[in-house]
C-alpha cells in the first residue's frame, strides 16, 4: 500500500523534490528516510538531500549512502546508469556488455573487462578507501578509461533531462536470476588478466628462489585472492595474508579508516604479523584493490612506510630498468613514456631528462592518465609506468586505471631483485635520488566546510598584489612561474596559456619557486578540503638532505601562512 505523504514547506522547489522522490523511489528503506524527515519537519536535511545532485569529481560520483538526489542509493544509481547506457548507444558502435557487481569484484576487473569484451561502458560501484558510510559510482568509457570532460558533464545534463526510471524492471531484484541469457565473465576476465600480467615479470627464476617473505593486507576488501594469484604468476610463494582483514567486510571492523594511505597508524595488524613472521615487506591494497601501500623493515629503526611519491621513484626506476634490460638491441627510448598527475612528484621528469624517454603530466585524477594512455597507444607510443601521489600506480598499460594488484607483485619482484644485490628498497630509493636528484615532498590539507571561504582564498591569491596580480614571493623566495588551470593561465608559456586543460569546476594554482620548490594549492573533487603539495626538486649531486628538508618546511609553512592564514578562522583543522 502506498503511503500518502504531503509537505507544504513554503518552498515549492523542496515540496516538488519530495514528491518526485516518493514517486520514483521504490526502495522501502530510502523512502522511509524521506517520510521520516517530512514527518519530523527537518526541512534543512531534506533540502540538503533533495535540492542538489552529485557531480563527477576526480574519481566519479561519491557521497554518503542514503535517500536523496545527492546521495548514493538505488534511484541515483539507476538514473546515472540509464543515461550512461543511452549515451554510449548513441556515440559508439560498441556492444553493450553487462557485468554483475558483487562482493568479490575489484577495481581493475572493470576497466580491463570493458576493453577485453568490447563493451560500450562499464560501471563500478565502490567506495574504495573512503568511510563505510560512503559509496561511489565510477563510469568507464568504451576505451576502458574513466570518463572525463566533456562526457561527465554531458551525463549529468542528460540525467537532469531523464530523471524518471525507464522501466519498473529497474527495481526487480530477481531479474538477474531469471535472465537465462546473462553470464558472469569474471572467471574468463580474471584468467586473461593474469595471463597478461605475466608480461610485467622479468625475473621469474629469481622470484621462485627468493628468501623474502611478504605480508599482504586486503583491508577488508576484495584484493586477497587476486594478489595471491598474481604472486603465483610471478613464481613467488604466496604472501602471508592478515587474517583479520582477508575477507570483505563493509564495516571495516579492524581499522578506524579503510585507507592504507594513512600509513603506519592503519597498518598496525600488518606490521605485527610481519614481525611475527620475519617478513621484511608489507603490502596493503585498499578495499577495491586499486591503491597500494608498502612498508619495509628498517635495520634497528622500525618500519619505513613509503609515500606515494617515494614508491613512484622506485617503480619508475624499476620499470625503465627492466624494460631496457629486456630489449634485444640497444633501447630506443623515443616511443617510451611515463605519466604522472601534476600534483605528484617530478621525479619521473628527472629520470626522463637523463634516460631519454618522454614524461608528461595530466590533471589530478587517474581518469586523465587513462585517457592519455589511450591517445598515446593509438599513435604507437608505449607507456610503461604512470602514477598519482595518493598511492595510485599503473605498471605497463594493460589496464587504463591505477591497479594495486599488479603494483603489489611488481614491488615484490623489485624487492627480491634488490635483495639479491644486498640492497633494500629504501637504500635503492636513496641511490635513485643521488643519481637523479633528491625529490622531497610534503602533502596534506586543511578542512573548510564553507565554500565562500574557499572562493575567497583563491580570489585573494589571484589579486594578491593588486587586481589580476599573483604573489611574487613565498617565504622570501621568488616565484618564477605561476600556473592557474582554473583560469587557464600559465606564466611560463609564451602565450600565457596553460598546456593542461582549463578546469573551471575546481580551484588549482601551482607556484614554481627560484630555489627549486614546486607548490600547488587545490580543492578536493569529493571532500571539503583545500589540499597542498610542495616538493623540493634538487639537481643531481645536491645530497644534503637535512638542508633540503629544512628549506622545504620553510616554504610549506610560508605557503600556508601567506596564502591561507588570513582565512584561518574558517579552516576547521590543519594537518602538516
CATH superfamily of the largest domain: Alpha-D-Glucose-1,6-Bisphosphate, subunit A, domain 3
Overall structural class, as computed from helix and strand content, comes to: alpha+beta
Amino- and carboxy-terminal Cα gap: 55 Å
User: What is Rg?
Assistant: 25 Å
Q: Helix share of residues?
A: 25-40%
Mean pLDDT score, rounded?
A: 87
Proportion in β-strands: 15-25%
Number of strands: 20
The CATH topology label of the largest domain is Alpha-D-Glucose-1,6-Bisphosphate, Chain A, domain 3
In the CATH classification, which architecture of the largest domain applies? 3-Layer(aba) Sandwich
- The general outline is globular
Low-confidence stretches: 91-105
Tell me the number of helical segments per DSSP (H or I, 4 or more residues long): 18
Major pleated sheet: 8 strands, antiparallel
Q: What count of domains describes the coordinates?
A: 4
